[in-house]
Amino acid sequence: MTDAQRRSYELLFSRHSIPFEEKKLDFPLVFGNNNRTVVEIGFGMGIATAQIAEADQNTNCLGIEVHKPGVGKLLWEIERRNIGNIRIIEHDAVEVIEKMLSDASTDGFHIFFPDPWRKKRHHKRRLIQKPFTSTLAAKLKPGGYVYMVTDWAEYGDWALAELSSTPDLTNAYPPGFAEPQSWRPKTKFEEKGLLKNREIRELFFRKRG
Asked: How large is the average pLDDT for residues 28-48?
């Protein structure tokens, strides 16, 4: 952690974070309003998270991350930009979603550039696969969405197959990949991938009903 990230973590964590516990979240209570709530799984250094939340302050953003420097960086961005609609949970995302989110409670999931676990023997560690995709669908409100972006083409193909075969989810851009969403800012990680001529693949699925 840089000195700035450490200071932000120590001074701001309790103000903007939610402790992990096996108890369902009440979003209106957590955020103090009845606005829509999106959940970002693995926000990295949190720059895109802060930009999205700052641009749409009528949407609540719950960010989940285990990387302390990233948490510290997002806390610094929250304070610098005076953002009031972000809360952070520093814990394993699968456990948070399974144990802290109620069914039909969430308006969207953002999954930007998750670890592709490139080696075949590690594919079982990939986040976007069944049955976890069914868990995401269960937590969504009808019409809610899963929005994933990857710069690893093979993982994009994998995720497209897994999400397409998940009951209750339907591809908003059938039968393939989505158009870039205008409200999603590019990240430094994404720009590095483009410099290496990697193909950015986007997937946007909605919950039926």
From this structure: 96
